[in-house]
Every structure is written in structure tokens, then in C-alpha cells.
Backbone:
């Protein structure tokens, strides 16, 4: 699913990244505004993902639903997915604006519809948030803004619609409807008890207060009316956590993508195990790519993996491999049924296949240097870029979301891309994630994040990781336009640290050189939780700085 | 987009099939087919003229194309077989007991055929195309499905826009076999009465109570709204996604290859060479062609290979590059001539002739891989308006096979000559094809199907078919339906040449055979003898 286009770059002056031009040569880009039909943007074509291209005007995704209906879960997950496929997306959570405005939460009384003072504050928060949405979509290069709030009244939705109309944004509503009390209680326990609104209270009073808070909203809740009032709107109603969906007037490609994604994410407990094939002959020789068999160590790892799978008695574990020998040989040793996916094959290094890094540096010094400059977008001549790889892997992600427990025996670059999806890593960090040989990562979705456990199977292997070049200062302008993760979408700083209520007139804060801080995950309660072997683990510690991950 | 192949089959309930010797065959499974782990019955629901047959046929074509053997069982065909001459809507009155008995009998026979198809003939999905408007009838189907351990997915089409209904009646029902020589107005009249007959007893799916545990999609007003309930598995989610993306709008798709390349003139395959002098001439001619046709809002897509990009650049219009439109990867054979391949890799060369669709170049791709890679392109073509795709021989064959419902046997031999533009226009249940040869000479890059070799009949039976000849079963119309209950399925051992033809003409793609120099268009209605030639 690849389309190289340049709409994004077209609209964004000042992005003359000296990327190597595509092996295919040049092209004009799709037109955004006719005045933008400039051919000099050619060099930038690779900056835009196919998905980004397909989104031809900015879209606001507006969540609707009572509290504890999984709106934030869906917002965050959807945002992570959209950023991963290359559409710059950011969540605007009204709760955070509200907490900013009203420092301490006292009780549900604040949410009573007849509490006029509170209502005034809440509306003001919404206006400020919308102002930030506008800035993000107009000035900061964002393509999709997810407005995560209850939006339960028509009055509020009409306000949003007229805002969108003024700014020529498309609007897509996502309403979550749930009447299963167990599901709601579960959700309150999972995420609301740890909410900043309830810093030191005990569980029961939280539950009680929260249920009353829901009641406050119920008084004025006007669900979308597909038959009459809202029949011309574009929306999806998600009913009882994905049991049923009502989809109305999908307008474009990206909305259809969103619908497909929301229909495929399941709230079920499962774990995903990622590892690379055992050490291969080429690994030992320091050659990249190719299709060699396992080394002696590699075979040993395959046996260790078999024991690992057996010891943990994983029920209904599905095993997936690529179609390359080293991956297949590793899976064969497990003695269980497995599936081969061609799209799990390692990144295609084109003319550099089966070369050592030293040889590439010698034979293709220019290529070598441009890869270091922008590893994510760099495409090997006749081969693939990491960006291409993400696009190729999209169906795998969709299937991983649908499936139960799966062990994916893949390759370094492939594993980096998959990991970046689950851990919400930016395009900057993605190609430098450390995925050593003979190590299994266990990913378990929890609350809004993903828990990572790391298992080193203690079989010696060569190190295939190349660190981010330190001497080579990375591009200044380009990173601002790079696809980010959902915590640092494009160039805007994270939500919490920005003085929200006072931001209306101030210019957006664009960090010129991508600061180290921007690769960090700012909100601790939302980041992936980490457990397990501490010294190995800090490699995935989100606080880790420039080198992405790991020691 | 993904190629998922099974070796040791991971399918539940088939433990004994875990044989390593199936490796030789592992390429036979498409990823989509693999993902379908038990046979599924798709049951259409809706009043007449709600587009059920349109969706059934289109869905079946798509599923076969992605590699899931699927077949439509149209109850109307069974009914017409049982009751030779249709008189009037009276037959459809719910108080016509005689007729009701016959109609139920037809349904039972059809279900029996469904069972044979899914259990003995290797089918994975059966589409039961009938009104199925009563709970009684649906309960009967649910029982049948339970007995046979099939999954069931309902597709209900609800439409209350009279214009849409009238348009549908005009487009497809007037030409129905039920109305051989009646004139237009009477047909409309009779048909509307026929709809009334069904309306009396119609019980739509009730998502809130009675049917809340069923898996289904309700398609409302031709895709304006969808209600999706309890999607069970991968293939159902694929079906939902597809139904949400097909639109009933009139648009045209133009397919052509890049202009002749330097490699073409040297007889080499693959590579990334540039246009020859004649190739550039074609690009110019293509620019004129587009201008002359006054194609408004035409989107142009190219691959990321030089020859395709250079062709698109000449058009002077914005265009998009899709990497997944790149030519089939010939792996170790890239940039070789066929003679060189035959000399350097004689075994590979022979293997490819034996089963060109599944043959994967060492280190490269098969046509099957290509179909999977191209799936998102098809989804986008369904969504878009007018598009010109400047692609490559193998890619164009795969795209064409989707629109013309060509089977895996024929797909790799479809003729897609250089410097020729195909215009595809969806009409009724098929697709009209017009050919425009732009009058710029080019080398011939087509290799004919080898005649001397008898293909392996065993493998051929397992090939993905198109929806007219799904797997090994013959087409519906010619089979004595009502008397088939006790009969064994008809399995042609060697795929007969007739299986390569369109069997039922009214549903076949309409082909206009003329090479239309300059661009005058004439539609010949259909050509049954030889499904695709230039």
C-alpha cells in the first residue's frame, strides 16, 4: 500500500531535505492547490506516506459518549495507528484542559448540568481546545485532530460543526455507546481510578463518585440520531465495545480506514511475542539481507525458543514467520504449526543486499551518508525504506489486533516497525530501536499503553545493531515534518506542559532543532508500563533519550 | 497485500492434514483463503431490486480474486429452472400455496448444492442470493448451517429511495429472463407488484432483539449507512470492508502499460530501464488521447519504475506514484531475456509454464503474490472516480482479472499489449471493455500459453477460479438443478477449454473487440466464444 506523493511537502515550505531522490527518478505530485503545483518539490516525495496523501483535507474526529465508554482508549489507539501509518494526528483531551483550569477536583458536583459556574469554565475549556486544534491543523502540519471529550449535547456538537465549517475541516464523529454495566465498571477500574482527578482516594469512593458523574451527563445526553437529526453527518457508532457498529456516510479514504481499524480492534486479553530469527550465517559474517540459513548459535536459539514456548504453556499460540530461510528454520524447530507471511520478510536492501556495512560505505559512500541522515525515509536503491516497510506491514498489525496470542518470528527492521506501533515510537526513533538477536519481547496491552517484558534466552549471538551516528547532526528542518508518534505529533509540544488556557493568542511553540525532550514520553500515566528484568528493560524506558532505546 | 501461506496447516479440525509433504502445494493457498478457517454461507436479505444480486456477484468476484473460492447460488435461477415460464407477479403472492411449495423446494435444492459445494468441491464461501425476507426462511437456513458446521453471515440490503429502486429495475430487471419479450412499462409494473408481494411478509433483521446474536451487515440506501453486528472473523471483516467501499457510481477506469522501454526492445524482463523512442511517442499519444477524451477529474497513477513515471510525466498532469504498482519481481531472472532464462534456469522455465499463476521466481514474486500486493489498489479503484493507471504487463493482467472475473488459469495469459489503453466501465453486473490502440508501434512482449504441454490436472483442480467457474464445479445454469439432489457433483478432470469461456452470457463482461483508433466507441454487446482477445 504505497503511494509516494508530495502533497504534504508541497504545503510545507522550508522542507528542502536533501534526501536522495528516488531511484525511479522524479515526479510531480498530486495537486493540493493549483498554485502549489511545483515540480521542485520532487525531492521531497518520500516525506509523505500513502495514507497521508489520501487525506486531502484536515479532519476532526469528534468523540461522543458518556464517561467511561472507552473514548480515550479509542482516541489514543486510533491516534497511535494513524501516526504509525503516516498521518500526523494528535489527541486533544478536554479533561486535561479542564484539570488545567480547575486545579483540584472536588466531586461530581462540578459536572452537574445546573452548576452554572462550572458549565462556563467547561465551555471555555472547549473553546481553548478548539483553538489549539485549529493551530495544530493549520500551522503545525497536523492532518487529523481527535477531539476527545464527551460532546454529549447537540449544542456542543453544533458548536464544533460550525467551528469545522469555518475552517473547512471535515468532521467524523465516533460515538461509543455502552449499556453493559460490567464493561463500564471494568473501564472505571482500569483507567479512572488512576485518573489525576482522584489522587489519593480509595477505590470505592472513586467508583461511586464516578458513577454519579456519569449520571450528571446522562441528564443532557443526546445520542446521535441516525434517522433524522444527524442523518447527514459522517459517523460511526460503536455499540457495546465493538459488538455492533453503525456507520453513516463515510466521506473519504481516511474515514474508511478509521472505520476499518475501529472495527478490528478488540478489547480482549492477549499477548504478542516478538523475536527475530536465530542468528544466521550472514549475521555472523556481518552481511545484511540475503537468505542464509541459521548458524550453530541460531539453531541453539531455535531450540531455546521451543523450550520457552513449551515452558510457558501458551494456549492457542499462533506462530508466524516470514518466507526467508532463517525465520522458517527457527519456526520449524518449534514443532508446532506455523504460518509464513511474505510481508514479514526483512527490509529489501536493494543493491546493498548481502553486503557488509563497511562494504556499503566503501562502494556507495553517498548512499551510506544519506541513510544516516534520515534512516526512516531512506530507500535503498532498488530496495525499500522503513516507510515502505511500515506500509507493507499494515495488514500484519490489523491481524495482530484481531488475533489472540501470537509469536512473530521476524527480522530486525520488521520488528522495529511492529514495535514502533505498539510502543508509539516516532519515525525518528523507529529505525534505531534495539531488537537484539535471541531476545523475545512480550507485549501485553494494558489500559492505554502496552506492557513490555523482555526475555533473553541466553544464547550468544553477534550484535547487529548500528547506533545512531552521533557526530552527524541530524537535519534541523526535516524532523519538524517527520511523522511523529502520538505523544509528539509533528512539531507541537505535548499537551500537559503547555499553558493551555493562556495559549490562545500565543504562537505555537515549534522547537527548532528537535530537542532531546521531544523524543521522550511526557505523560507518565499514559506510557507503557515496564516490568521484568530491570537492566534489560530500560531499553524500552520511554524516558530514554536521543538514542531511542536501550543501554 | 499480505501473503500468508500455510505449511503445516494451522486450521482447526484438520489435524491429520499436518503433513510435511504438502509443501509442494503450499503455494496453492492464498493468504485470504487461509484466514477463512471454516466454510461460510453468506445469506442475502432484501426485497427484490435492492441490489442483492449486484452485491452477491461483485463480492464473489472479489473473493475469488483474492483467492477464496466462492460461488453464488441464485435462487431465481433455480426457480426459473423449476417453473419454465414466468407469467406474472401472481406467482409471488404469499397466499399462492402451490407456488410457495415450489419456491421452498427450490430453496432446499439450492441449499443442498451449497452443501455439496462447501463440503465436497472445495468451496470456502457460498453466497445464497435470494430474498430470504421471512424469519421462517432464515431459521431454516440457520438450521442447515448449524447441521453442517458452517458459519453464516447475513447481508441485508435496505432501500427506501424509490429512485434507486426504479433505476435498478430498469437496469437489470428489464433484461431478466423472466421478461423475455415484454415491453418496458409492463415489466416495471409487474415488478413493482412483485415487490409488494414480498413486502407483506418482510421481516427485516432486528438488531435490538430477535437477531441481536447474528452476524450481519445491513446496507442502507446503497451504502449511505451500514449497521454491522458481531463480525466473527477475518473474512467477515474483509467482506464488510469491501461492501463499505464499493459504490454505485458511474466511473471509468483506464488501464495501460508504460510506453515501450529499452528493455522491451531488447526482450529483457523486469529491470528499471527508460522509454525507447517509440515509448516516448506513445507517451505523447497518451497525452493527446486524454486531452481528446476531455477526461475531467482524471486521476493518474503510476508505479515507481522509470518507464511508468516517464510515461506519466509526459501527460503534463498531476499524478501519483504507487510502489505497489511496480512490475512483478522476477528475482534472479530480472533483466534476462526468456532465452537466457531458459538456458540458465531450464527447470525454473519449465515450472513456470506448468503453473504460471502460482510460480514464484526465486527471490521474486508469483502472480498470486502480485494479486495480494494489488488488493489495496483495487479497493481504491472501487472508491475513486475516473482513474488512469499507467502500469506494467503482469500488474495490468491482475487488475484486469479482477474487473473481468478471470480465473487463475487465464490471468497470467491475458493479452495486455503495449501502447494500448483499455477503458473499463462497470455496467449492470459486469464490466464493459473498450480497447484503444494508440497507433504507435511496439514490440510484442506476450508469451502465449505453451500448447505442447498438458498441464497437471491435479493441480488445476485446486486452482482459484473466477466466480463463473469456481473451483471445479460447473456453472449454475447448465446443471439440471432440481434433479441434482442425489447426483454426484460434476467434476471435470481435465479443465476443459470451455471452462475458460464465459458460460452465461448475460453476466459476462461485455467486450468490444474493435481496436478503436482515434477513439470512436462502439459497444458490441457480448462475445461468448472467446472471452478475451484483441
Residues:
Amino acid at each position: 500500500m504505497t503511494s509516494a506523493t508530495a502533497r504534504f511537502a508541497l504545503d510545507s515550505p522550508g522542507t528542502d531535505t536533501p534526501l536522495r531522490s528516488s531511484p525511479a527518478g522524479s515526479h510531480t505530485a498530486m495537486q493540493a492547490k493549483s498554485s502549489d503545483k511545483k515540480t521542485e518539490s520532487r525531492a521531497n516525495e518520500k516525506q509523505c506516506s500513502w495514507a497521508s496523501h489520501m487525506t486531502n483535507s484536515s479532519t476532526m474526529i469528534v468523540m461522543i459518549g458518556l464517561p467511561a465508554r472507552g473514548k480515550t482508549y479509542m482516541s489514543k489507539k486510533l491516534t497511535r495507528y494513524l501516526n504509525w501509518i503516516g498521518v500526523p494526528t494528535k489527541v486533544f483531551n478536554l479533561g486535561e484542559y479542564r484539570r488545567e483550569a480547575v486545579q483540584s477536583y472536588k466531586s461530581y458536583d462540578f459536572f452537574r448540568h445546573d452548576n452554572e459556574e462550572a458549565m462556563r469554565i467547561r465551555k471555555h475549556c472547549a473553546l481553548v481546545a478548539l483553538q489549539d486544534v485549529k493551530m495544530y491543523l493549520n500551522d503545525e502540519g497536523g492532518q487529523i485532530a481527535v477531539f476527545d471529550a464527551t460532546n454529549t449535547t447537540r449544542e456542543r456538537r453544533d458548536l464544533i460543526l460550525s467551528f469545522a465549517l469555518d475552517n473547512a475541516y471535515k468532521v467524523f464523529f465516533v460515538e461509543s455507546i455502552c449499556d453493559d454495566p460490567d464493561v463500564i465498571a471494568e473501564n472505571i477500574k482500569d483507567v479512572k481510578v488512576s485518573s489525576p482527578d482522584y489522587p489519593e482516594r480509595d477505590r470505592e469512593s472513586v467508583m461511586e463518585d464516578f458513577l454519579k458523574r456519569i449520571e450528571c451527563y446522562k441528564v443532557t445526553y443526546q445520542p446521535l440520531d441516525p434517522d433524522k437529526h444527524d442523518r447527514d453527518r459522517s459517523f460511526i457508532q460503536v455499540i457495546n465495545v465493538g459488538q455492533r457498529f453503525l456507520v453513516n456516510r463515510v466521506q473519504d479514504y481516511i474515514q474508511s480506514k478509521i472505520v476499518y481499524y475501529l472495527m478490528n480492534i478488540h478489547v480482549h486479553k492477549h499477548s504478542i511475542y516478538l523475536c527475530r530469527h536465530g542468528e544466521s550465517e550472514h549475521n555472523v559474517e556481518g552481511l545484511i539481507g540475503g537468505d542464509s540459513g541459521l548458524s550453530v548459535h541460531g539453531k541453539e536459539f531455535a531450540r531455546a525458543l521451543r523450550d520457552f514456548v513449551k515452558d510457558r504453556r501458551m494456549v492457542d499460540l499462533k506462530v508466524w514467520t516470514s518466507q526467508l530461510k532463517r525465520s522458517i528454520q527457527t519456526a520449524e524447530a518449534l514443532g508446532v504449526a506455523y504460518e509464513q507471511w511474505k510481508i514479514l520478510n526483512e527490509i529489501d536492501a536493494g543493491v546493498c543486499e548481502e553486503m557488509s556495512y563497511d562494504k556499503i560505505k566503501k562502494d556507495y559512500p553517498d548512499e551510506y551518508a544519506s541513510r544516516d541522515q534520515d534512516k526512516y525515509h531512506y530507500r535503498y536503491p532498488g530496495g525499500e525504506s522503513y516507510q515502505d516497510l511500515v506500509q507493507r506491514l499494515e495488514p500484519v498489525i490489523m491481524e495482530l489486533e484481531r488475533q489472540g496470542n501470537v509469536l512473530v518470528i521476524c527480522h530486525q527492521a520488521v520488528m522495529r516497525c511492529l514495535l514502533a506501533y505498539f510502543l508509539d515510537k516516532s519515525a525518528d526513533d523507529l529505525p534505531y530501536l534495539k531488537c537484539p538477536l535471541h531476545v523475545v519481547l512480550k507485549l501485553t496491552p494494558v489500559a492505554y499503553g502496552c506492557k513490555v517484558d523482555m526475555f533473553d534466552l541466553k544464547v550468544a549471538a553477534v550484535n547487529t545493531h548500528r547506533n545512531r551516528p552521533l557526530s552527524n547532526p541530524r537535519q534541523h528542518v526535516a524532523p519538524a515534518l517527520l511523522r511523529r508518534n502520538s505523544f509528539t505529533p509533528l512539531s507541537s509540544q505535548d499537551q500537559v506542559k503547555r499553558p493551555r488556557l493562556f495559549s490562545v493568542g500565543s504562537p505555537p511553540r515549534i522547537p527548532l532543532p528537535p530537542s532531546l525532550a521531544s523524543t521522550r514520553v511526557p505523560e507518565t500515566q499514559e506510557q507503557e508500563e515496564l516490568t521484568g528484568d530491570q537492566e534489560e528493560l530500560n531499553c524500552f524506558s520511554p524516558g530514554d533519550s536521543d538514542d531511542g532505546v536501550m543501554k | 497485500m499480505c501473503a500468508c501461506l500455510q505449511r503445516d496447516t494451522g486450521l482447526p479440525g484438520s489435524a491429520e492434514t499436518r503433513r510435511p509433504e504438502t509443501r509442494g502445494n503450499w503455494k496453492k493457498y492464498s493468504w485470504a483463503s487461509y484466514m477463512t478457517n471454516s466454510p461460510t454461507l453468506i445469506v442475502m436479505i432484501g426485497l427484490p431490486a435492492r441490489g442483492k444480486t449486484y452485491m452477491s456477484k461483485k463480492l464473489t468476484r472479489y473473493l475469488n480474486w483474492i483467492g477464496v473460492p466462492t460461488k453464488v447460488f441464485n435462487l431465481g435461477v433455480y426457480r426459473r429452472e423449476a417453473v419454465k415460464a414466468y407469467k406474472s407477479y401472481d406467482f409471488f403472492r404469499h397466499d399462492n400455496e402451490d407456488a410457495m411449495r415450489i419456491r421452498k423446494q427450490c430453496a432446499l435444492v439450492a441449499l443442498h448444492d451449497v452443501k455439496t459445494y462447501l463440503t465436497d468441491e472445495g468451496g470456502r464461501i457460498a453466497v445464497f442470493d435470494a430474498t430470504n425476507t421471512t424469519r421462517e426462511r432464515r431459521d431454516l437456513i440457520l438450521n442447515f448451517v448449524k447441521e453442517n458446521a458452517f458459519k453464516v453471515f447475513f447481508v441485508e440490503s435496505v432501500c427506501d429511495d424509490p429512485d434507486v429502486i426504479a433505476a435498478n429495475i430498469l437496469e437489470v430487471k428489464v433484461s431478466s429472463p423472466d421478461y423475455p419479450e415484454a415491453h418496458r412499462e409492463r415489466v416495471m409494473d409487474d415488478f413493482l407488484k412483485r415487490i409488494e408481494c414480498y413486502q407483506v411478509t418482510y421481516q427485516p433483521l432486528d438488531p435490538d432483539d430477535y437477531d441481536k446474536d447474528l452476524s450481519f451487515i445491513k446496507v442502507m440506501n446503497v451504502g449511505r449507512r451500514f449497521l454491522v453486528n458481531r463480525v466473527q472473523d477475518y473474512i467477515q471483516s474483509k467482506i464488510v470492508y469491501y461492501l463499505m467501499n464499493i459504490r454505485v457510481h458511474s466511473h471509468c477506469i483506464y488501464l495501460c502499460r508504460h510506453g515501450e522501454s529499452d528493455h522491451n526492445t531488447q526482450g529483457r524482463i523486469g529491470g528499471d530501464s527508460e522509454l525507447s523512442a517509440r515509448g516516448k511517442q506513445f507517451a505523447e499519444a497518451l497525452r493527446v488521447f486524454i486531452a481528446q477524451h476531455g477526461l475531467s477529474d482524471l486521476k493518474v497513477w503510476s508505479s515507481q519504475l522509470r518507464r511508468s513515471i516517464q510515461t506519466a510525466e509526459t501527460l503534463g498532469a498531476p499524478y501519483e506514484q504507487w510502489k505497489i504498482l511496480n512490475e512483478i519481481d522476477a528475482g534472479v531472472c530480472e533483466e534476462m531475456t526468456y532465452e537466457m532464462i531458459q538456458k540458465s534456469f531450464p527447470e525454473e522455465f519449465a515450472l513456470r509454464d506448468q503453473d504460471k499463476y502460482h510460480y514464484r521466481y526465486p527471490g521474486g514474486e508469483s502472480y498470486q503474490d502480485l494479486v495480494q500486493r494489488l488488493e489495496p489498489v483495487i479497493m481504491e479503484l472501487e472508491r475513486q472516480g475516473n482513474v488512469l493507471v499507467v502500469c506494467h504487463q503482469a500488474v495490468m493482467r491482475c487488475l484486469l482479472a479482477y474487473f473481468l472475473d478471470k480465473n487463475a488459469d487465464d490471468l497470467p495469459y491475458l493479452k495486455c499489449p503495449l501502447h494500448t489503453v483499455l477503458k473499463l466501465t462497470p455496467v449492470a453486473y459486469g464490466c464493459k471493455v473498450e480497447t484503444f490502440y494508440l497507433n504507435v508501434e511496439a514490440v510484442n512482449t506476450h508469451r502465449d500459453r505453451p500448447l505442447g504441454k498438458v498441464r497437471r490436472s491435479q493441480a488445476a483442480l485446486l486452482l482459484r477460479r473466477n466466480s463463473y467457474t469456481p473451483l471445479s464445479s460447473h456453472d449454475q445454469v447448465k446443471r439440471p438443478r432440481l434433479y441434482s439432489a442425489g447426483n454426484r457433483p460434476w467434476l471435470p478432470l481435465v479443465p476443459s477449454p470451455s471452462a475458460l469461456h464465459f458460460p452465461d452470457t448475460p453476466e459476462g463482461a461485455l467486450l468490444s473487440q474493435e481496436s478503436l483508433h482515434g477513439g470512436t466507441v462502439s459497444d458490441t454487446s457480448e462475445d461468448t466464444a472467446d472471452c478475451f482477445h484483441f
Q: What stands out?
A: The radius of gyration of chain A is 24 Å. Chain A is about 35% helix and 10% strand. The CA atoms of residues 286 and 332 of chain A lie 24 Å apart. The first strand of chain A starts at residue 59 and ends at 64.
